Amino acid sequence: MTAARRPDRDGATVLTLRSTWRLPAPPDRTWDVLADPTSWPLWWPGLRSRVVRQGMHDGVGTRGSLAYLAPGYVIRVGLEVVAALPPGAGRGGCGGVGGCGGVVLRAVGDLRGRALAVLRPDEAAGAEVTTATVLTIDWRVRPAGALLRRAALRAPRVLEASHAVVMDRGERGLRAHLTATRSWGSLGR
Q1: Which of 3, 26, 57, 125 is least crowded, fewest Cβ atoms below 10 Å from its Cβ?
Q2: Would you give the DSSP letter of residue 131?
């Protein structure tokens, strides 16, 4: 995970956080799991989620509510899908948002800003047929909750380390879920 912080025009701290996950499933299978936020608590320890409003068939307009028990606090974030392009939907079967597929999310609540998640085949896996995915998640957010604003000013490395723990739990959980459901196909979802 990489992290950076800087003040914006109002003097508030803007966090730029990047996580890169290597996952044992092709981009389309990974997309199917990620496109169902109600399943996230099944594989992401500490996370609760619910869909507040279902969007269009591609997910655009879908709104969800997340609560995560992070080390030392609970973070509450609302997410809305503002743009989505599933793997293979772009030019040449792999056009997508910066790669083979992606989604842009608007965040409100304890964190305000945007996230961009991009899925692409993991070419390092070395298979002619893609069996693995690299998922890159970029957050550009302002802490909005009082506790998070104070942490961003007084202990930014602690906040960044907490984010790294949360994202590591998500990656490990999703890896295990994708591995366990690999042979079950849609029955395992």
Answers
A1: 57
A2: -
